C-alpha cells in the first residue's frame, strides 16, 4: 500500500515538473525570451576558430555575425564579406556558426552576433589569438671564453602573445636572469640576460634558455655549452711518504688547464735534471728507479698554454734506511697508530666505567638492593643507603 502511494506521489511530482518546464518553454517562445548566446573563443595563430551563435527559441528571425570592424560576415547563410578564410559551418533559425581559418593576430577582437528582432538584440564573443613564440636564440657567447671575463648571455624570442616567459638553467639548475619586453605590433619580443664572471668551473657547463607559453605543449629550449680557457694549475704528487735510499720513486705533475698544458718540463735545483739512467721522464711523470741520497733537492715541474705558465715544486729528502733503524718508518707509524688506538680505548673504558658506576648507584638507591639480603626493612634501607654511599665513593674514585 505505502509503496503504491509513494509511486503515485513520485509520478505526480515528476509530471508536475515536466509541465513546469513545458510552461517555461512556452513562455520563452515569446520575443522577450528570444536572445542570441555566444561564447568567447581562444585560438592559436594559424589555427581555426568556430564562432557559434545560438538562439534556442526563434520565430524565424534572421541572425548575423559581424567582425570587430563592424563589417557583416554572414547574414543567415549569405556571405557578406569577401574573405576566403571565413566559411559557413551551419545556418538555421537556431544557430549560425562560421569558421575562420588561418587566424592571424589581427583577427583578434570582439565579434557580434545580432538577432533582428524589434529592437535588434546583440551579443559579443571575444576572439583571443595566441601568438606562438619563436625558437629562442642565445647570443653573447664568446667561444672560448677566458677565465675572469665578464660575459652576458642573452636569450631572445619574438612573436609571442601574450608575452612568453623565459627561464635560464645552468646545467639543469635554474638561475635568475633579467627580463625585458618590447611590443612589436600585436606580439612581443622577450629578452632575458644573464651576466656573470667566467670561472674555470664554467668550462663545459650547459646554459639553457627555456621559453614557456600557453600556445606550446612543451617549452622551447636552446642550449649552449660554455668553453672556458684558463692558465694551467699544477700540483706534484709523489709515490712514497718517506723516500729511502734504494727505493723506486715516482713524481707526477698533475696539471689542469684549457687548452691542456703540454709538455711538462722537469728541473732540479733550478737546473736541468742530472743525466743519469736512474731518472726517467715520461710526459708528466718523473721516475727514479733507485733512490740515492745524491737525489736530494728541489724538483720543479712547469707547464704552459697560451694563457700562461705555471709551476709546482717538491723537495725530495732521501732517508738513509740504516739511520732510521731496523724498525723502519712504517713500523714507527704503525706503532704510533696502535698507541693512539690503545689510548682512545682506555679513555672509553674509563668514561664507560664512570657512566656504569653512576647508574648502578642510582639503581641501588631506588631498588634497595640491600633489601634482598637484609632481615628487615630498616636494615634494608640502611643497606641501600650504604650502597648508595659506596656508589658515590666509586664515582669520586673515577673522577
Ligand atoms: C569547428 O566546427 C567543425 C564543424 O562542426 C568541426 O569539425 C571542428 O572540429 C570545429 N573546430 C573547432 C576548433 O572547434
Ligand atoms: C518559419 O519558417 C518555416 C519555413 O522555413 C515556416 O514553415 C514556419 O511557419 C515559420 N514560422 C514562423 C513562426 O514564422
Ligand atoms: C569574453 O571576453 C571578454 C573580453 O576578454 C570578457 O570581458 C568577458 O567577460 C568574456 N566572457 C566570458 C563569458 O568569458
Ligand atoms: C626594445 O626597444 C628598445 C628601444 O627601441 C631597444 O633599445 C631594446 O633593445 C628593445 N628590446 C627588445 C627586447 O627588443
Ligand atoms: C749513490 O750514488 C753514489 C755516487 O753516485 C754511489 O757511490 C752509491 O753507491 C749510491 N748509493 C746507492 C745506495 O745506490
Ligand atoms: C741528502 O740527505 C741525506 C740524509 O739522507 C743527508 O745526509 C745529506 O746531507 C743530503 N744531501 C744533500 C746534498 O742535501
TrEMBL record:
Ranges of residues in domain Ig-like: 36-128, 136-226, 232-317
Keyword Membrane among UniProt keywords: yes
Gene3D superfamilies (UniProt xref): Immunoglobulins
Keywords, ordered alphabetically: Disulfide bond, Immunoglobulin domain, Membrane, Repeat, Signal, Transmembrane, Transmembrane helix
InterPro entries referenced in this protein's UniProt entry, alphabetically: CD80_C2-set, Ig-like_dom, Ig-like_dom_sf, Ig-like_fold, Ig/MHC_CS, Ig_C1-set, Ig_sub, Ig_sub2
Transmembrane segments: 332-357
Membrane topology (UniProt): Single-pass type I membrane protein
Cellular component terms (Gene Ontology): membrane
One Pfam family hit: V-set
Main location: membrane
Family annotation (SMART domains): 4.1m, IG, IGc1, IGc2
Family stated for the protein in its record: Belongs to the nectin family.
Name this protein carries in UniProt: Cell adhesion molecule 2b
Organism: Mastacembelus armatus (zig-zag eel)
Lineage per the UniProt record: Eukaryota, Metazoa, Chordata, Craniata, Vertebrata
Amino acid at each position: 500500500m505505502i509503496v503504491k502511494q509513494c509511486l503515485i506521489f513520485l509520478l505526480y511530482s515528476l509530471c508536475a515538473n515536466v509541465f513546469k518546464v513545458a510552461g517555461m518553454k512556452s513562455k520563452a517562445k515569446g520575443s522577450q525570451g528570444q536572445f542570441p548566446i555566444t561564447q568567447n573563443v581562444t585560438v592559436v595563430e594559424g589555427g581555426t576558430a568556430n564562432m557559434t551563435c545560438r538562439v534556442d527559441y526563434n520565430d524565424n528571425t534572421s541572425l548575423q555575425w559581424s567582425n570587430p570592424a563592424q563589417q557583416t560576415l554572414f547574414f543567415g547563410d549569405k556571405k557578406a564579406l569577401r574573405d576566403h578564410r571565413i566559411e559557413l559551418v551551419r545556418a538555421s533559425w537556431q544557430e549560425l556558426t562560421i569558421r575562420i581559418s588561418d587566424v592571424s593576430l589581427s583577427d583578434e577582437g570582439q565579434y557580434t552576433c545580432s538577432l533582428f528582432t524589434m529592437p535588434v538584440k546583440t551579443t559579443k564573443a571575444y576572439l583571443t589569438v595566441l601568438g606562438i613564440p619563436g625558437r629562442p636564440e642565445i647570443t653573447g657567447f664568446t667561444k672560448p671564453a677566458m677565465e675572469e671575463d665578464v660575459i652576458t648571455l642573452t636569450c631572445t624570442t619574438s612573436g609571442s602573445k601574450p608575452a612568453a616567459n623565459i627561464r635560464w638553467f645552468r646545467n639543469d639548475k635554474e638561475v635568475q636572469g633579467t627580463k625585458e619586453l618590447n611590443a612589436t605590433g600585436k606580439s612581443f619580443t622577450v629578452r632575458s640576460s644573464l651576466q656573470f664572471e667566467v670561472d674555470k668551473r664554467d668550462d663545459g657547463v650547459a646554459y639553457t634558455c627555456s621559453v614557456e607559453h600557453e600556445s606550446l605543449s612543451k617549452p622551447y629550449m636552446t642550449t649552449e655549452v660554455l668553453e672556458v680557457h684558463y692558465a694551467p694549475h699544477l700540483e706534484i704528487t709523489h709515490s712514497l711518504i718517506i723516500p729511502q735510499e734504494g727505493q723506486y720513486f715516482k713524481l707526477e705533475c698533475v696539471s689542469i688547464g684549457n687548452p691542456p698544458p703540454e709538455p711538462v718540463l722537469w728541473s732540479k735545483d733550478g737546473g736541468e735534471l742530472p743525466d743519469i739512467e736512474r731518472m726517467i721522464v715520461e710526459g708528466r711523470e718523473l721516475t727514479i728507479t733507485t733512490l740515492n741520497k745524491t737525489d736530494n733537492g728541489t724538483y720543479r715541474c712547469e707547464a704552459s698554454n697560451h694563457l700562461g705558465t705555471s709551476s709546482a715544486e717538491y723537495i725530495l729528502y732521501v732517508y738513509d734506511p740504516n739511520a732510521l733503524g731496523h724498525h723502519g718508518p712504517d713500523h714507527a707509524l704503525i706503532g704510533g697508530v696502535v698507541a693512539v688506538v690503545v689510548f682512545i680505548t682506555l679513555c672509553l673504558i674509563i668514561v664507560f666505567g664512570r657512566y656504569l658506576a653512576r647508574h648502578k648507584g642510582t639503581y641501588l638507591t631506588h631498588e634497595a638492593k640491600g633489601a634482598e639480603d637484609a632481615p628487615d626493612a630498616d636494615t634494608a634501607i640502611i643497606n641501600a643507603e650504604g650502597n648508595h654511599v659506596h656508589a658515590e665513593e666509586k664515582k669520586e674514585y673515577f673522577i
